[in-house]
Amino acid sequence: MPWVDKLSEPQELRRCIRDLVALSTLPAIWKNYNSRQIADSAAAALLSMLNADVIYVTVPGLRDEPVAEVMRTSQAVSIASSGHIEHILRGASRGRREQISVIDNPLGNGTLRIVAAPMGFGGDAGIVAGSVNPQFPSETDRLLLGIAANHATLAIQRWHAEAEQRRLASVIERSSEFIGFADLEGTPQYVNKASWDLLGLSGTEEAQRLSIFDFMAPHERRRALHEVLPTVMGTGRWLGELHFRHFRTGEIIPFLVDWFLIDDKRTGHPTNMATVSRDLRPQKKLESDLRRLNESLEQRVTERTSELAEALERLTLEAEERARADVRAQQTQAELYHASRLSAAGQMAGALAHELNQPLTALTNLVNAGRRMMANGAPHKVDTVRDVLGEAADQALRAGEIIRRLRDFVTRGETEMRIENLPELIREATDLALVGTGPHGVQVRLRFDPRADAVLANRVQLQQVMLNLIRNAQEAMAQSEWRELEVVTARLDHKSIEVAVADRGSGLPDGIVEHLFEPFHTTKIDGMGLGLSICRSIVEAHRGELRYEPNRGGGAIFRMTLPVPLEQ
Ligand code: ADP
Fold first, then answer.
1. Phi, psi (5° rounding) for residue 17?
2. Where residue 167 falls among pLDDT bands split at 50, 70, 90?
3. Is 56:127 a contact under the CB 8 Å cutoff?
4. Which terminus has fewer CB within 10 Å in the chain: N or C?
5. Chain centroid, CA 231 distance in Å
6. Considering its fold, how many domains does the chain have in total?
7. Which of 518, 542, 513, 541 is CA-nearest to residue 530?
8. Whose CA is nearest to atom 21 of ligand 1?
9. 276 lines ligand 1 (CB under 6 A)
């Protein structure tokens, strides 16, 4: 053992002891150092102890830390060359361990002597020292290098072993839950920062002077002692709600408490009890807010429902009232309609007198003529008498027909409207109007547009209109030489057709035009002035119009428009 000889030199021995003492203090300094800091500190210490030119330390990446590589050099090594040297030393750390290698001095003349001490992580981990001193390394140097490598290995291992603990501790410290543990007698040993804030404690020291039961609200202590604690001790755990007490304000705070035992892993016996407890105030507030919201919602729904029910009731009443009003309106309408029909019937009565006057006069005349013929007793006149009586019977029938129409018109109920053949309707009315006018009567011309064949009408009423217009025309032409009556139909457009009755009579006398369709405006001695007003009422009831216009070259034209039936 040659190095023992060297150590026997007192100076070297002193140096060795001094450096060993210095090395032995390092682990205490490294207590809170991470891998890199430990490697760097070891490199710095060795550089001065070994009087080396360069110390290179490499530690493999452990857990979540990266590989640490540190190099310290003496002032003799320029920064420019340090990269090159690091490369060489990195190679040396992979080479044969604890063997001295000698290479050409990359820093200048001579050689660089290199020695490496492995660290207990396996792989490349180790400390490499290099010096241009031809005496390097002495046995002391190698001893110190080995001890430093061991110390650094242990310190780094401890650092990594404590890393998980440090993480756990920081989670507990930062947690917003009340976390603490106590001995099995119930004396707190640790409470985290959140619990200081939650319960108004100044720190763990204050908690350590108390009992865990002091943390609870007075009314909870009995239960905690006699129910909860036995459960924890018996089953190892209790989870439930407990009320704590704020040490400063006295506020009672609900907590969800998880209270459990911590067992010694080796013996399996409990050593401590601990708790992770949550302040339930935010949750309770949320629940009560929600409850209040629900209640107010229910209340609002109830109110709204009853409002809606009331509104519905009001609506139902209104609907019933409206239905009753509708029925009343319908009744009124029917009454009005009937009344208007009655007043029209009143007008009609006048017209009836006018209408009946002629057939009845003719009838009277004919019967008188027949009676005179019979009185003469002339048998050869029997045929003539039969004709006269036949004519009289026709006039009586006509009078009867007029009366029947009036009855139809006045009869309450729907006025029957049908699709009628317009030329046929006009022809019948014309024939009827011209009965009894004799051979010197009026010349009638009928012109029918084939596109105006159908009309939706009450046949009797429309014939009544035609009859009236033709009668008036006849009367107006009584003094005329040229007695020509023209009835013309025409399709005006897709919606309406027109019937025009034109005569060559006297035309309308002055002052009558403005009142032509008003009742009781007449220029005739025996006239009632009702005919045209009734005509217009009838035409309007057919959704048509009745207009007058003068006939160019003398006479009058009455134009009646009627709607084209829908199915056309
Ligand atoms: P009236 O029963 O008196 O004939 P109308 O209402 O039928 O009543 O007619 C009113 C008046 O309009 C008539 O008195 C007559 O002076 C005039 N009038 C009606 N039609 C014609 C016509 N075709 N030509 C000339 N005047 C007419």
1. -65, -45
2. confident
3. yes
4. N
5. 53
6. 3
7. 518
8. 472
9. no
